[in-house]
Amino acid sequence: MNISDLIEQARSSTGSLGALAEVIGKPQSRISEWKKGTGKPSATDIMLMAEVAGLPPLETLAEVESQLDADRASVWQRALSSLRAASVTGALALLIWTGLGMGPDHAQASIAYPDSSLPSHGRGHWFDPSTAHQRIQGPASHDAGPFRFDAPNTRPTRADSP
Questions:
Q1: Statement to judge: residues 83 and 28 lie in one domain
Q2: Among 73, 92, 102, 114, which residue has the least CB neighbours within 10 Å?
Q3: Where is this region: Disordered (predicted)?
Q4: 52 near 14, Cβ under 8 Å?
Q5: Would you tell me the crossing angle of helices 17-24 and 43-53 to the nearest 10 degrees?
């Protein structure tokens, strides 16, 4: 990709050259100079235009700079190769991390808990919003799960207390 192609893609994304100039904060005449080849944009300007055009900024910078600066084109080509290799490595790492593209049913562990292990508080299921308005009336009105209340809660007394 050369600078003219980048400017055209960014211009088509914004609607006009004037709108592009406003977005990147440069005069429209400067962008026209870049397009004609009489001026050279900074790396920041190239990356801003790439973002406006919806292109990957670093890859676009390496491609455009390798064409703008023939003396250092090999440096930019190596940078571009490194970026692409890093992208592939990152994609592979992501696939491995997520289980090589397995669906969510296979990528997670599943532990079955019985419903009795969930608190119900006498209001239906513990997460049922339709029964959330009901109040607990006392220990006899709801299922206490594994806990049973057979006697009222009283404090123990000591035989030697006055």
A1: yes
A2: 114
A3: 120-162
A4: yes
A5: 120
